[in-house]
Amino acid sequence: MTEFFTTYGALIVSMVLGALLGLSLYLPLMAGQLSLASPGFYALGGYIAAILSTTVFSTTGVFPVPLLLLEMLIAGIVSGVLGVVVGVPALRLRGIYLAIATIAFVEVLRVLALNLDITGGAVGIFGVPQPFSEPIEYLWIALPLLIVSMVLIYRLERIKVGRAFVAIREDELAAGAMGINPTYYKVLAFTLGCILAGVVGAISAHVLNTWNSRQGTFDSSINYLTFVLIGGSRTFLGSVVGGMVFTALPEVLRAMADTSAIPPWLAQLLRDGRLIIFGLLIVIGTIFFPQGLVTPDLFKNRRKRRRPVTSDQ
Question: Which segments cross the bilayer (predicted)?
Fold first, then answer.
């Protein structure tokens, strides 16, 4: 068992972080907003952690865990403030126009990171100190964060705020007629997703030991969109399952490509055609599973089957 966690520890941590990134995209989708800004805030959180740990919090030896928690807090606050600034004008758009606007925001952040000295330019920031000696030890931070996020979203869906999100998603005009302020709740959902993405970025910078502009790109937006659309966009469990599965999928494809049982052209496709495969999965998934693999009806039907049958006699 120890050898298993040593070998696959980095992949397991990446799967948990992928689930968190799926949740960061699921939060604006709760309010019917197709936002693809999560990679931008993920990159922002990583840069904040990398800059703070290599300059402001520069230490010798093992990086203290309390400083990592402080970086996560700072990354979340900065991402939340910027999320409000970006969300107020951007969320006046709907559908594909909002998606295009958020992709443009991600590209703006990427270009800034490529041209600023503080971010290391195209080279990025190397030597981000690590608080743990083994990748699997990051689970002590990432896994509790995932559990807490899932519990909070589960409770959020069952209180007034969550019901307002759902009402806006189903019919924004009807929700407004019922006294719900669509702009307020859409910005709130967007900001919560930005905060979560920024916190995950702060953890990832230490896990990867380096950070550069490739962490927040259009390719990443497609990956995260796959997490939610194929996993399930109507329940947070779908985002968690999708994030874990599609984070592990590239490693599975790479392992398949290294076998000699498949033709060379297929092996090359498996190595370099991840986006093509993800795009095909999105198309196929939206056709045959329009609500994703995990849906609320799945659990409702299970509860109905478990309900005991009573007799009227």
Answer: 6-29, 41-63, 69-88, 95-116, 136-154, 187-208, 275-299
